[in-house]
Amino acid sequence: MDEQFIRENFPQRLKHYMLLHEKKRNDLVRDLGFKYSTIRDWEKGITIPRMDKAEALARYFNITTTDLIG
Fold first, then answer.
1. Are 34 and 28 in contact (CB under 8 A)?
2. How many whole angstroms separate alpha carbon 31 and alpha carbon 7?
3. Cβ of 49: how many Cβ atoms within 10 Å?
4. For the whole model, what pTM was predicted?
């Protein structure tokens, strides 16, 4: 999968699942141990998660990595 595609689509998908599960950045920080600034950068499309982080997010939301990344 193309990095540009992920960079363009991941932020919206992350926000969608956070809203669907009523989670805020601070919840992900607390529950998954991610840095607040990392999650912010993902939401803004500045960076994309490494595969291990994407897998952790997918497990957290009970979805597949494909659902999350595209």
1. yes
2. 24
3. 21
4. 0.90
